[in-house]
Amino acid sequence: MQRKRLVFPFSAVVDLDKLKLAILINAINPKIGGLLIRGPKGSGKTTIVRALTDILPKIKVVKDCPFNCSPIDPSNMCPICSTRYNKGEKLPVEEKEMVVVDLPLGATEDRVVGSLDVEKAIKYGIEALEPGILADANQNILYVDEVNLLPDHIADDLLDAAATGWNIVEREGISVSHPSRFIFIGTMNPEEGELRPQLLDRFPLSVNVERIDSVQHRTDVVKRNMEFETDPEKFYEKYAPLQEELRNRIAKAKALLKDVVVSEDFLEMISKTCIDLKVDGLRPDIVIAKAASALAAFEDRTQVTLDDVLVAADLALSHRTREGGFLEPATPEEIKEVIITTAKKLFQFEKTGETTKKKAEKGGILKGRAAFWVKKDATEKEEELAKKMGEKQSRLKKIQKLTLQLYFLLSRFTGGVWGIAKRLKKSPKNAPVFDAVQLGSSKLRGEIYEEKAEMKKGKGYPTVSDVAQLSDISKGYPFLTSYEKKVVSPSKFFLKMGKIKASKQTVYAGKRAQAVTTLHRGKPYGWKIPHGKPVDIYIPATIREAAKKQKHRKKSPETALKIDLEDVREKLRLYKASLTMIFVVDLSGSMLLNLEAIKEALLKLHSDAYRFRDRVGIVALKGMGAVVVQHPITNLRVVANKLVNLRISGYTPLATGMLKAWEVLKEAKRRDSSTIPTMVIITDGGANVPLKRSLETGVVRQIEEPRVIVREYEDLAVKDVMAVSKIIKREGIQTIIVNTNPHLYGHETYGFAVTQIIAAITSGSHHTVGRVASKTEMVRDMIEWIKEEQSKIVSNSEFA
Questions:
Q1: The domain 33-211 belongs to what CATH superfamily?
Q2: How far apart are CA 250 and CA 24, in angstroms?
Q3: What is the pLDDT of residue 408?
Q4: DSSP 8-state code for residue 212
Q5: Do domains 33-211 and 579-796 have the same CATH topology?
Q6: For residue 227, is pLDDT > 90?
Q7: From the centroid of its chain, how far is CA 60?
Q8: If we measure between CA atoms, which residue out of 26, 38, 91 comes closest to residue 60?
Q9: With 70 as the cut, is the pLDDT of residue 497 above it?
């Protein structure tokens, strides 16, 4: 028997209460569908996912079925199991541990969706499917680390399976479909790039893991980590009781889930909240209701409370696009405010005063079920009588209180306490407290108190109140004003990429072309006869080619198929080549009037570029040299923040900036040979600082600032610009030059000649801003130019 691998216990993970709840409710109700975990490196994202394996419940599958089909759910059966089930055959049942199935970033499409079973093809001459990761993931958890870096064609396969619950394989002469219903858990570091909106929306829930600022919590993390590494078995035994308790709670919650009720008022509140927040689609409404029900079941309740809805909404809405992408996802504060405001409107709660928990409990908390018909307000006489009875301490009052307690005790078995009541303006002194349904009117009155949630020591799991940190709606909330604040996202991305011609053989697809390549990346597209030693063998095409020649080949009786070297075929793959774009930004004093417009134009990269895995960096001309403000990354939010902080500084060392950008692009090309290097130079062309070392002679120069001020180095600086331009041309780097010089006459116009020389040498495009009516017009022109030139670059250039 294979020994079970020890993982860090789930109940030993410090803090991360919201994340724990999000994971647990997925285990309780797998139909919720998954979770996205976002956070910086070293924040425990992967650790807590791995820890989940030890507390997951067992699943029932059809024995010997390669697709993990359910023996009791006809909708989760492959065609073979479904046929047997419909014939009345009793399917053999096997219990398996629910597992976390990893999808590596380097996984091929064959490994993910399944491929031709080579062994059966060669031995028996039949075409059969070898199940892939999506088959293994059925009824299990599919985990993708760094999901934001997943290749697009693999992400598309996951989207299809997540949307339909089925994996359909139509390839290599095989047509097979099988169920693939999994809990999709992905982790990502936002610093390494954002997630495609289509894939982001497939994650029902999301949690942002923040940095742990508590000294005590950080100390606990270190101690437990060292303890686990020293003696894993002893550490596991220490937390075994908490692990067992957590398993039992999950099993109990799964059984209770079908009995949990979400009231019509809460369903209305959920829908209205999604409408007010302008969330795209109906999926969030459904997810919130499911998540709230699972939270209630986890706490052994059959009624969903406001805290359940608050926590569920935070998990389900914090990553959702709004207004078709024109609004940023709602913050937790916005979500909370809108839900409470909506609750106030629906339940019409009227605050009658402040109290404390101690005073509320003094009158006694009655546990049971009750319903009262309330239609009218109490009269003044009834208000006075209730006040006197509250103040009066008599034997009769004690008897009434004991009688009421008895009624509520019996209500647990008889179905509830029923009565007719009237609303009081103020709660009587020492009045008992109980939960009840109010009929006849939706207007509520009552005193409120705030109760801070405290962590329950010794528990290996969080509670809803721990996460919500809010009192229940029955205790009331102060009125909140209507939600009016809107958060608008930065400008839309206008640099839509055109068709990229990455080699002589190109297949255009959408806004970003797909290069046909024989590299070990991308989606298989076809095959070719290899030249030299085969590298990426295409098995199905190789088998078919060999099968045609079997009649004329000698082979042993044990060999069903003989393959010769001439039969071997190589794969051709479609790979969406990314763009690496470096902006060389002139920060000289002469750029003062134009810099704000340049910043605004560059910030328009923000919204969509990450979809194509494009990398953007910045090199700034600063003082007497140049600095890499940001190396190429896919997270353009970081780039945008760096742009905002740029300041005017000194002179125009244009050649130094171009050389620095060339070095960055050369390194990017070395890391990824398929990337398309592009340099966008935004300057007034007034080069006045030469390189510190001559590119032609190698002589080290002593550059003196006073001589720069009197323009003594201008001719030398221009020669260096020409020398760097030739290097850029040799490297095959494409250039777009935007001259922002508004001067039309005089000495300052020499900058136009400089930028025109750069464009001529590098075969790049040249654009001039000149005198424009407004900053808006300048921004618009710059964006249009860059759009147009990028389209030309990617459609006319050839890259090996």
A1: P-loop containing nucleotide triphosphate hydrolases (3.40.50.300)
A2: 7
A3: 66
A4: P
A5: yes
A6: yes
A7: 31
A8: 91
A9: no
Asked if 135 and 68 touch (Cβ cutoff 8 Å), the reply is: yes
Segment among 53-57, 65-69, 336-340, 436-440 with least mean pLDDT: 436-440
Question: Amino acid identity, residue 521?
Answer: R
Contacts of 314 (CB under 8 A, 6+ apart): 18, 332, 335, 336
pLDDT reported for residue 399: 73
Strands 370-377 and 365-366: unpaired
Task: Say yes or no to pLDDT of 315 above 80.
Answer: yes
pLDDT attached to residue 488: 28
How would you class 218 by CB atoms within 10 Å of its CB: exposed for 0-12, middle for 13-18, buried for 19 or more?
middle
- CB burial of 354-379 (b: ≥16 within 10 Å; e: otherwise) equals ebeeeebeebbebebbbeeebeeeee
Distance between CA 59 and CA 68 in Å, rounded?
9
What's the Cα-to-Cα distance from 643 to each of 171, 445, 533, 617, 647, rounded to whole Å?
A: 47, 53, 48, 10, 9
Pairing of strands 579-586, 676-683: parallel
In angstroms, how far is the first alpha carbon of the chain from the final one? 52
Exposure string (b/e) for 749-772, b if CB count within 10 Å is 16 or more? eebbebbebbbebbebbbbbbeeb
Reported as a single tens digit per residue, the pLDDT across 605-648 is 544 455 556 778 888 887 788 888 888 877 666 666 676 666 76
Q: What is d(CA 355, CA 451) in angstroms, rounded to the nearest whole number?
A: 11
Classify strands 205-208 and 349-354 as parallel, antiparallel or unpaired: unpaired
Length of the chain: 800
**How many Å apart are CA 279 and CA 162, to the nearest integer?**
20
The winner for highest mean pLDDT among 304-313, 399-408, 424-433, 491-500 is: 304-313
Which of 597, 594, 647, 593 lies closest to 621, judged by CA? Answer: 647
Contact between 254 and 28 under an 8 Å Cβ cutoff? The reply is: yes
The residues spanned by each domain of the chain are: 33-211, 214-245, 264-475, 514-575, 579-796
- Which amino acid would we find at residue 763? S
Buried b (16+ CB within 10 A) or exposed e, 151-161: bbbbbbbbeeb
Q: Among residues 74, 234, 284, 287, which one has the least CA distance to residue 165?
A: 74
Which of residues 710 and 746 earns the better pLDDT score? 710
pLDDT tens per residue, range 106-121: 788 888 988 777 666 6
Mean pLDDT of 207-222: 89
Nearest residue to 169 (alpha-carbon basis) of 199, 132, 137, 143 = 132
CATH class of residue range 579-796:
alpha beta
Active site residues: 283
Residue with tokens 């777009």: 736
Residue 319's SS3 state is coil
> Which residues make Cβ contacts (< 8 Å) with residue 553, sequence separation at least 6?
562, 564
- CATH of 264-475, picked from 3.30.1300.30, 3.30.1380.20, 3.40.50.2000, 1.10.8.80, is 1.10.8.80
User: What is the average pLDDT across 640-663?
Assistant: 80
Q: How far apart are CA 635 and CA 148, in angstroms?
A: 10
Q: Shortest CA distance to 177 belongs to which of 125, 129, 111, 108?
A: 129
Q: How many angstroms separate the CA atoms of 73 and 75, rounded?
A: 5
- In this structure, what token pair is assigned to residue 224? 């437990």
Give me the DSSP letters along 506-569. Answer: EE--TTS-EEEE-SS-SEEEEEE--SSS--SB-HHHHHHHHHTTGGGS---TT-S----GGG--
* Contact indicator for 687, 723 with CB cutoff of 8 Å: no
pLDDT for residue 374 is more than 60: yes
